[in-house]
Design brief:
It is a single chain. With 272 residues, the protein is α+β, with helices and mostly antiparallel strands. It folds into two domains: 1-128, no CATH class; 139-270, 2-Layer Sandwich (Heat Shock Protein 90), CATH 3.30.565.10. The chain has seven helices and five strands; from the N terminus they run H-H-H-H-E-H-E-E-H-H-E-E. The protein has helices at 2-99, 106-130, 135-138, 140-150, 170-190, 220-223, 227-238, and strands spanning 156-161, 195-202, 206-213, 242-248, 252-260. The chain has a five-stranded mixed sheet, covered by helices on one side. A hairpin with a 3-residue loop joins strand 4 and strand 5. Helix 5 (170-190) packs antiparallel against helix 7. 17% of the residues are buried. InterPro entries: HATPase_C_sf (IPR036890), HATPase_dom (IPR003594), Sensor_HK_TwoCompSys (IPR050482). Its EC number is 2.7.13.3. Residues 173-261 form the Histidine kinase/HSP90-like ATPase domain. GO terms for molecular function: protein histidine kinase activity.
Length: 272
């Protein structure tokens, strides 16, 4: 009888242990399910927020691009008007002045002619600063070479365009020209550089542009709020490009730009 009671107690303990194990397993499964569901929920929320953030960033980039394009169109309209209308009218007036009979008063004629020449040069300069009117017809490379020639008395600039360069969208070429122009202007104004180099090479997926000088360099954190740096970086962003500044005090500065060909964001690692 005692053995029977003992066996019965053992059986009850075993059943209780089994029931406890079952309860623990069940609770573990339920908790695991809740954790998985919670993680899935959090992951979905994060993913939705990331998608929303990316959509907002893309929207902001589109707004910036549209704004820059609108500005460029307005600049182009004004520049063409100055270049084609006012410039041509001044040229005609200049021709008339050459044929004007001033009854031997060469001093008056010379003064008026000099003023007309100054006005023509000013109109061209204003037009050129607003928008590179002739870039599309002349071509990007030749237009940059013209800029180099015009600045040759201020700084020695050399440009190397690797074989295989392909004509880009006019918007990209205008932005790139403006970047080179802005970089060069900043170097002439704020640096002691004597030499500046421009390197351009086409790759299957993107184009690399490197602009460097041998000047005194700069501290990016101190100058990043300046209009020159802001203008350059704004134009880089408008092309959906990535960039990297490399500047060492007293050893010059360098700007590396990677411009995608198919409007796809290039790999940031390509700048390292």
């Amino acid at each position: 009888m005692f053995i029977f009671i003992y066996l019965h107690q053992i059986k009850e303990v075993t059943l209780n242990i089994s029931l406890l194990i079952l309860i623990i397993v069940t609770i573990t499964v339920i908790v695991s399910f809740i954790l998985i569901a919670y993680r899935s929920f959090i992951s979905r929320i994060i993913k939705e927020k990331n998608v929303q953030h990316e959509a907002e960033v893309l929207h902001q980039k589109k707004l910036v691009l549209e704004n820059i394009k609108a500005q460029e169109e307005e600049r182009k309209r004004i520049a063409v008007m100055i270049h084609d209308d006012i410039g041509n009218r001044l040229n005609i007036l200049s021709l008339w002045m050459n044929n004007l009979d001033t009854k031997g008063d060469e001093v008056i004629k010379k003064n008026i002619y000099n003023q007309m020449s100054s006005l023509i040069d000013a109109a061209r300069s204003i037009s050129h600063s607003l928008y590179p009117v002739n870039l599309e017809s002349v071509g990007f490379v030749l237009y940059v070479e013209e800029l180099i020639a015009n600045l040759s008395h201020k700084i020695n600039i050399s440009m190397q365009v690797m074989p295989g360069y392909e004509k880009k969208d006019i918007f990209v070429e205008v932005q790139l020209y403006r970047i080179i122009q802005e970089f060069t202007t900043n170097v002439i104004k704020h640096s002691t550089a004597t030499d500046l180099w421009i390197y351009i090479k086409d790759y299957p997926q993107n184009m690399a542009v490197i602009i460097s000088d041998n000047g005194q360099g700069f501290d990016y954190d101190l100058v990043k709020k300046g209009m020159g740096i802001k203008n350059i970086e704004s134009r880089i962003k408008s092309m959906n490009a990535v960039h990297k500044w490399k500047s060492t005090l007293n050893k010059g500065s360098r700007l590396i730009i990677i411009i995608p060909k198919n409007n796809e964001l290039p790999n940031q690692n390509s700048l390292n």
